[in-house]
Amino acid sequence: MSPSRTIPTRQRLSQVRYEIRGELARRARDMEAQGRKLIKLNIGNPGAFGFRAPEHLQQAIAAHIAESDPYCHQQGLPELREAIAAKLVARGARGVTAAHVFMGNGVSELIDMALRALLNPGDEVLLPSPDYPLWSAATILNDGVPAYYDCKPENGFQPDPEQIESLITPRTRALVLINPNNPSGAVYSRETLQALVEVAERHRLLLMVDEIYDEIVYDEAKFVPLAPLAGDVPCLTFSGLSKVHRACGYRVGWAVLSGDPIRSGDYHHALDLLGALRLCANVPGQWAALAALTGPNTIDTLTAPGGRLHEARRAVIDACAASGRVSVVAPQGALYAFPGIDTRDLPDFDDHRFALDLLTHEGVLVVPGSSFNVTYRNHLRVTLLPEPAQIGDVFARIEHALDRWTRQSGTARLATA
Fold it and tell me: Could you read off the pLDDT of 374-387 as tens digits, one per residue?
């Protein structure tokens, strides 16, 4: 009998990282199984922090459950796609109809489908650094090559159109934007977005814009949708229920293809084919999406001054302002902050090792900034979903951990002097 062998896996998986649910999250589950109480700020999962999907979404599923047994059209329920198209047209997009809307089991599935429909081996995709790492993973797993453009903290995490254009090669196929941004909370100006549209037009790139946080903005920040600015430039806009409507578990997302239909015709057919191979998206959740788009606004009270998300954001900003070692670019949108650590007294600081230490000794789970495909290793991503008082407790624990690291670093320097 031949010796047992492990099943070989796809080699490209070795290039994929998703620390949001990776090694540290697994360590946290082990600690919880041993009875340890943790504060977990690694995932933007509203339901885990006491938020509920609005009642009219729940009622829509119950009211239509008898109509949800069959498969629907591969692109989604017709009346829902009409409502999504109408929303983009109301924002100023031209020529968008229900035929341009594709429903998916969350935006994650649609990102994978969109890149699978586009890329041949070795094709390049321009991605932000920091990025939401699913974009990098989906590019790699669909045989593409990520090419990162910098969104630097010293520039408010804003993209630089000139740098982006300098990275374009004959193999570049798409420019990806995440606006409002995960993990930084940056919101892009109309002028920046217009400049990026012009770059895409000059180089015949597909624009792919993740707008899942489109209605989650704070104070004076203004969200500007990309499709109306793109005009005839092919643009694929992603959004869904999970964040604005706090319905992550419903797994409902959508992608809308706008721009010149002649230029995007073959791509449209490719998306339709991939959607058909998958049969259809979750039907009960689509009824909830229709209710979300046609029902009352439920997010503004959370993001306005006094609202829970606004005050959690304020707690992060205040904690960083009071710290001598932690700073943050105030998030303008989305559900995260991306604070940085002053490492001048910590020359060997590493964000992953610090996050592991923070989990082990302080009971706080965060995501190391390097998990978001940046070259520096002194940032952490925290979600804004906890109660504001708990945010203050988290940053007190971060300060306590930094005190310990500073003492240990000083002792090490004395020992080698």
Answer: 999 999 999 999 99
